[in-house]
Design a protein that fits this description.
By secondary structure, the chain is mainly alpha-helical. It has ten helices and no strands. The protein has a single domain, classed as Tetracycline Repressor, domain 2 (Orthogonal Bundle), CATH 1.10.357. The N terminus is likely disordered.
Length: 158
């Protein structure tokens, strides 16, 4: 978890300095140990899963959630309230993963998207689908635990 915190600070500092860095690049710099032989033997790395979730986009969502939370919250701040707000926001990772799984054939044909984990063959479509489903179940469980209506709306296509 410390690696992700450092990565978030690094992304924010790079943005403020005008040196745009992708979340995957920051993950490589801080959170992923180099030479992870176990992940390489199976043909995929943790970085591919991180790239599948498009962390840079989710970072922007998390920042706007923090601003809304700051201005909308009344009363004393609670660690658990902030934690569940962040976890509910991070549920958006599953949208990115399932979207890349769904659009894998079109991504394979376009030069701009051909290097993504699924079209490039670094990650199989089956693994990406399972990863997206697991993220969906975790997000549904988190939101339903807080409020059943939030969990239901999270699963709806609207």
């Amino acid at each position: 978890m410390v690696g992700f915190t450092v990565a978030h600070v690094a992304v924010g500092a790079a943005d403020m300095a005008g040196q745009r860095r992708d979340g995957v690049e920051v993950f490589r710099m801080f959170a992923a140990p180099h030479g992870d032989g176990a992940a390489q033997r199976h043909g995929h790395t943790h970085e591919d899963y991180v790239e599948l979730t498009k962390t840079a986009i989710t970072w922007l969502i998390l920042m706007s959630t923090a601003v809304g939370y700051f201005f909308g919250h009344q009363g004393a701040w609670s660690f658990w309230s902030v934690l569940h707000t962040i976890l509910g926001t991070l549920d958006r990772f599953r949208n990115r993963a399932l979207n890349q799984w769904y659009e894998r054939e079109a991504d394979r044909k376009m030069r701009r998207t051909a290097d993504r984990p699924i079209p490039s063959g670094r990650l199989s479509a089956d693994r990406a689908l399972v990863f997206g489903i697991l993220l969906s179940l975790a997000g549904f469980a988190e939101l339903t635990w807080i409020d059943w209506l939030a969990g239901f709306l999270d699963c709806s296509p609207f």
